Amino acid sequence: MKRLFALLLALVMVLSLAACGGNAGPAASPDAPAADAPAADAPAAAAPTEELQNVTDLKVDLSAIPEAAAYKEELVIAENSAITSLDPHANWSYQTNQVYRMVYDTLLTYSNGEYGPRIATEWKWVDGTTLNVKIRDDVYFTNGEKLTAEDVAFSMDRATYSSVTKYYDHCEVISDTELNIVLSSGCTEFLYFLADTSTAIVSKAAVEADPEWGYVIASGPWVLDLEQFIPGDSLVMLRNDNYWGQKPNTKKFTIRIMSDNSVALMALQNGEIDFVPTILSTEVEMATADTSIDTVTYASSNIEYIAMNTVNGGSLTDPNLRKAVAYAIDRDQIRIAAGQDTAKLAGSMWGWASTGYYDGFDSIYSYNPEKAREYVALVEDPSFTIMVNGATPAQKVHAQMIQAFCADVGITVEINETDAAGISANTKWGAATHEMLVYNISLSDSNTSSWEFYMTNAGKNRAFCSDERVQELLVEAAAAEDNYEMYKEIQEINLEDLYYIPLYYRNITVSATKGMGGVILRMAGGHDFTYACVPVNN
Fold first, then answer.
1. Whether the predicted pLDDT of 445 surpasses 90
2. 298: which residues sit within 8 A by CB, 6+ positions away?
């Protein structure tokens, strides 16, 4: 054990250097050792929102729009990942999503579990699968054409996000200002997608006339300036002075791709840019101490996790080996080594802010090397390969620590480093080559973003869960208003079958020009800069 913890300490140092550049448990199988039972005084399952918010450090609220006689005409923010597509129906990422929020309108708005009007003025369920929607009569695209129900229907038909297409069937246009959205099966949470940019509204006429670029004709507060779009380098948006709603105080908004977070922070401190979306853990203290900028640290819904290929993942198709891994690793040590010593351990493979969150993982799979060895003894070939993004230092450390913990209990682990494209190509449903994947993903505060971990054929289902009961529960829960127990059962099934091992939710630190306001920070990233502004006296 001394050797193991010496290695873990070394891994912590490696990460630091890299950064500077409810409690029901699994039922035991007949021939397997019994799982540890939760303590008799274990607390009942509860949503951990308050606990997580207690560790959130919100020194500055960036959402309020500052009052000023004048504002900076241009804001520049850094983004660390390239923006290569501007089509909301063809490409979705947290980097592109923040652009889509500014450029495109949606039917609804969503905040803290509440829906509000945007293009839609009224909406009601006619029956379990039909939603009647009435829309505004005063909205125009940037090409001067009026937005009608035909454009909404066209945009819905064009949406490709899997959780949308799983339920969406077709639209029935009643008039220019009214339509029915018809689902293939009941889904009360489908409203979330109508507030999300995955169903952003584009001009039907513009797209049909110009399939390559017509989708940029939108009706939101900002207009894309294609002449200043350099894929992988920068993107410029201009204020839409003909916008039907409240107009931004800023006239020009530029996104610069800056993959080096340290360089981006320096540019902010020098006044070259106005916002940095990620401050390295090694630089948080320095950024917070700099009174010339505003720094905010918050508990995100970005979950670090382990996915085990339960279909063709070699020895990991054996649930005994998956359970051995769960008992072998100390998730708390992994979190600390990743520089996330104040981050929240994940109690489930689910969004912590979602209504269905069930915090039950630690009541079963706390660090227990002896229990791990009991399960290893039941495995014919206790070995596997971890696939990891070699460009992500924290995840490399995750993989190295898993390797060390597993070696301590008799499991042989190899590490296969690839890049984001390699992960996407090699973890597809029906064509996967990975055995274990160490990865992360940002979840919204809606249950809808957790569905895809468990839906058959879903892109995020990298464990290839196809459990029939899980699929039944997803359908039943989507159609029900009171669905907590159904979502809880899905998470309990994961405790039994161990498709996923949740690690922790990352803290995120951002920094902005002093006095900047109008920025709505989102737990999952892809912040809303629609009304971002900086008074000129700053």
1. no
2. 56, 57, 58, 507, 508, 509, 521, 523
Residue 494's pLDDT is 97
Extract the tokens encoding 406: 């597993």
Buried b or exposed e, range 38-59, using 16+ CB within 10 angstroms: beeeeeebebbeeebeeeeeee
Return the residue matching tokens 């630690």.
362
Residue type at 377 in one-letter notation: A
Model-level pTM greater than 0.85?
A: no
Separation between Cα atoms, residue 206 and residue 145, nearest integer Å = 9
Structural contact between residues 280 and 261, judged by C-beta atoms closer than 8 angstroms: yes
Greatest CA separation for the chain: 74
E strand spans, 136-263: 168-175, 178-183, 222-224, 234-239, 252-257
Report the alpha-carbon distance of residue 473 to residue 471 in Å, rounded: 5
Contacts of 273 (CB under 8 A, 6+ apart): 76, 77, 78, 256, 258, 264, 267
Burial class of residue 94 (count of CB atoms within 10 Å of its CB; 0-12, 13-18, 19+): middle
Q: For residues 29-42, give the mean pLDDT.
A: 34
Residue 339 identity: G
Is 299 within 8 Å of 523 (Cβ atoms)? yes
Which tokens go with 94? 């947290």
Q: What is the pLDDT of residue 287?
A: 95
Helix (H, G, I), strand (E, B) or coil at 169: strand
d(CA 526, CA 441): 12
pLDDT at position 394 over 60: yes
Which among 134, 106, 129, 120 is positioned nearest to 182, based on CA atoms?
A: 129
Give the model confidence (pLDDT) of 335-361 as tens digits: 999 888 878 899 999 988 787 899 999
CB atoms within 10 A of CB 1: 7
Residue 5 has pLDDT above 60, yes or no: no
The amino acid sitting at 173 is V
User: What is the rounded distance in angstroms from the CA atom of residue 131 to the CA atom of residue 309?
Assistant: 38
Q: What angle do CA 199, 175, 155 make, to 5 degrees?
A: 15
